[in-house]
Amino acid sequence: MLNRILATGLIALAPLTARADLVVLQYHHISEQTPASTSTTPELFRSHLARIGELGLEVVPLESATRAALDGTLNDQEQVAITFDDAYASVWSTAAPLLDELGLPYTIFVNTEAVGREGYMTWAQLKEARARTGVTIANHSHDHGHLARRPDESQQAWHRRASDSLDRAKAILDDRLGDTATLFAYPYGEYDSALEEMLDERNWLAYGQQSGPIGEGSDESRLPRFPMATPFGQLSSLNDKLRSRALPVDTGSLPDGIIDDNPPTLILELPEDLRPGALTCFGSGQGRLPLEAEHQAVTVQAPEPFGNRRFRYNCTYPAGEGRYYWFSQQWVDLSRPED
Ligand SMILES: [Zn+2]
């Protein structure tokens, strides 16, 4: 019991800077008619916006807020950015009117090959969106391919395929809409180190689909976002996500997540003022994971192999005032079929 009390005291004393981190929400369809795994119901989307308002969070443009979060110059107020991947028709028909009415900024990541197809926004709509205050149109590749290098693909073939998809989308967006933002969202949230390097060479900010807020220790080629499709975006966990803080680890030094071993091993080096015993990690479909700590190094490994192409280790740590540090490591098993 004494240990418990001491431990609780230690957590409360863990120093917290006043600085805020940036929470980025990721949506696809805002609809009841589309696949559940990539859809948020209009009712839930409205509830998300209401909750953001109730918590007094400021909704900010993605690019400037990301740069401020990375520089550690984000102001003290909690901030959130709203993003949509794939430019689906329901973003324009359902989400945009709600956001525009509230005067909230948002970003649409566009895979250019699909524009104008059934179920997707048209170029005229994207042009109209871009003309609106606070709306950013950004790059989600041309063909929405799995852009990490395939196991059977030569370096040269991969380089041509990936760079072509990135640069063609940017050229088309600039040509159709005028200069567009140098922001990129990985299709399926998948990346490897070589692809990250390609993004770094272009000096683009690149966003994944692993959860957590963006802070000073985040890496600009693997920026986290919280997936908000109905199965993940439930109101019960929304406050924790909206008020989360970036776990203070250097995420760029962590593995790119392309696995050799299944289950994979993650080693998190916690700063001196965080207690390894207070860290909690969960694995996709495997519940709470066993942790082993040696000084400040925490080793995380799931007991069982994972059967999916993508899975995650999600870790949280009490940050005081009912808030959590949050970090998610994504893993990709390239031997599993592409979706
Ligand atoms: Zn997508």
Protein described:
- By secondary structure, the protein is α/β, with parallel strands linked by helices.
- The protein folds into two domains: 19-244, Glycoside hydrolase/deacetylase (TIM Barrel); 253-332, Immunoglobulin-like, CATH 2.60.40.
- Helix content is 29%, strand content 24%.
- It contains eight helices and 18 strands.
- The chain has helices spanning 2-13, 42-54, 62-71, 89-102, 123-131, 155-177, 193-202, 235-242; strands spanning 22-27, 29-30, 39-40, 58-59, 79-85, 106-110, 135-139, 183-185, 205-207, 226-227, 245-246, 265-269, 280-283, 287-288, 291-294, 297-301, 310-320, 323-332.
- The strands form five sheets. Strands 1, 4, 5, 6, 7 and 10 form a six-stranded parallel beta sheet that branches. Strands 11-18-17-13-14 form a five-stranded mixed beta sheet, covered by helices on one side. Strands 12-16-15 form a three-stranded antiparallel beta sheet, with no helix packed on it.
- Helix 2 crosses helix 8.
- The longest helix has 23 residues, at 155-177.
- The chain binds zinc ion.
- Residues 85-86, 140, 144, 187 line the site of zinc ion (ZN).
